[in-house]
Structure prediction request, 664 residues.
Amino acid sequence: MKYESQSIAKLYFIAAIGLFVGQILFGVILGLQYVIGDFLFPEIPFNVARMVHTNLLIVWLLFGFMGAAYFLVPEESERELYAPWLAKLMFWIFLVAGALTILGYLLVPYATLAEITMNDLLPTMGREFLEQPTITKIGIVVVLLAFIFNIGMTILTGRKTVITLVLLTGLVGLAVFFLFSFYNPHNLVLDKYFWWFVVHLWVEGVWELIMASLLAYVLIKVTGVDREVIEKWLYIIIAMALISGIIGTGHHFFWIGAPDYWQWLGSVFSALEPIPFFMMTLFAFNVVNKRRRDHPNKAATLWALGTAVMAFLGAGVWGFLHTLAPVNFYTHGTQITAAHGHMAFYGAYVMVVLTIISYSMPIMRGREAANARAQVVEMWSFWLMTVSMVFITLFLTGAGILQVYLQRYSEDPMSFMATQEKVEIFYWMREGAGLIFLIGLILYIISFFVKGEDVKMLGSSVSIEETS
Amino acid sequence: MNVRTTETDEELPRLLPGDFAIWFFIFAELLVFAIAFISYAVARIQNVEMFNQYQLTLNRELGAANTLLLITASYFVVRAIHAIRIDDVKSCVRWLYLSLGCGSGFLLLKSLEYYEKFSHGINLSTNTFYMFYLSLTMFHFLHVILGMVILLAIAIKAQRGGYTAQDHIGIETGASYWHMVDLVWIILFPLVYIIR
Prediction:
């Protein structure tokens, strides 16, 4: 580790992994509730479990992004963090606020939570993924602003690289688009527009910039390929992500009461959204093939390649499956969406955060890479989680296809609940795959504690420095 | 350190002018437009009469003038490259600014065309034909602006002596992108304005 303040990332990563465990536990509970509807009722009803599952995901990914920024920005900018104390303070504020919010979801009815937090003064609660009480939302904005100030000052007063500038653009976008969550028009169509301006422009817009910059950073480090080459790829990938992603928002507007031209614009532009992901895959494999060093952290390289492939499959291919308006007419809001959501979030954002954790954690713990045995365990966890996620996705896709047929396509359409019973077998199999995912995650955590001899890069004293 | 000897891009025979990376972008952009054109064709098959009727309301003269402007701009860009190949920086810069002039002319005429359409209350919701006309041409309009920004950046760098006969890959890169913008219009213009 070159700079002392980089170690702040460790706090953020530990919290991220802790919340990740919580997210998966609730995922397993939810999966079971699909087939045993009153499991844990009335203590944890389905809607609450779902809210906790999705909100924890968002919060831990944010922890991951922030940790990643705190780790890579000082090194890229060649200076200590502008205000390390602020980063630590914000960590505790964010953690406490996050924990209180989740406890609020679990301990009191949602309506009571709205009352306690005085939602009436500025009503923002009740929208999917953005269920947080207004006061939590304000907290998120404060934390994000302090974070961006800290990272921004470090970048602007230090060495500027394409990676940090792309990252900063992504992070500023993340903060700005979150502001739309404070505006809740009475008109339902308008309300949906603004909701998508947060949700879509995050995951299919600015988060892609964050992801691409994190991936590029790790690839520079583990392959030693010239920065110039990687930066060129980065420019092209983000240009394509923005060209396709921004107007691609239209693929959410097909059936919400928006003008019909969105069916064309949304279909055409969102059909192109796989391109940047495909380029990312080409980029990652190309760069690893042209590597100029063999970094001892094999696990990090595996995560990086895995991210590129799984993001392309989950976000690109599974997204494309149901993005065209005539297809979406049948698949909208079915298990096909759930299949896409699972693999896209895992492939793009979970994996990129695990990639940077895999690369940076050993360094923050004083070595180039984890010992060989630990890496083997970590790679096992990679395969268990990734393969089980592929199966979760396939089972949900199966459920989705059957659901679309029975409920929307057949001559004699069935009701929603009758259909749910028919697709039960897929839900059971999904639950099985979910349990294997949980085992993979436990193995992942164990990998941090496996002891063994350090692995060193062959014959190099400046091993983890760049060659360029 | 384990240093691997791998070929770099420079060692490969050069098949395409300019930086290799721009070609990824160019092909991706062409794919974007191709899909948009195919969508136009599909929508037209379903409403041939409506498309034919409203196509007549478009200003073909302005469209033709714009085609000439873009082709001329491309010609000037070619001249700029010829100039830099014999180290004639001054005329290279002059040709680049001339092509920027043509690009500006395109933007001006296109804006007049839009003004005329908007003042008749035409918008994306008017009908499918106008939806395609407006979104295709506006998307191309944005590409002309991007192409001009690139040409301007190149012109400024050339002015400061940033390119020579030996090293002018930047100009070739920008020129390749500009030709793409031009090419797309050459397909778009007949497709939307003329073919019946």
About this structure: The helical segments of chain B are 20-46, 48-55, 60-85, 89-119, 128-159, 169-194. Residues 6 and 147 of chain B are 34 Å apart (CA to CA).
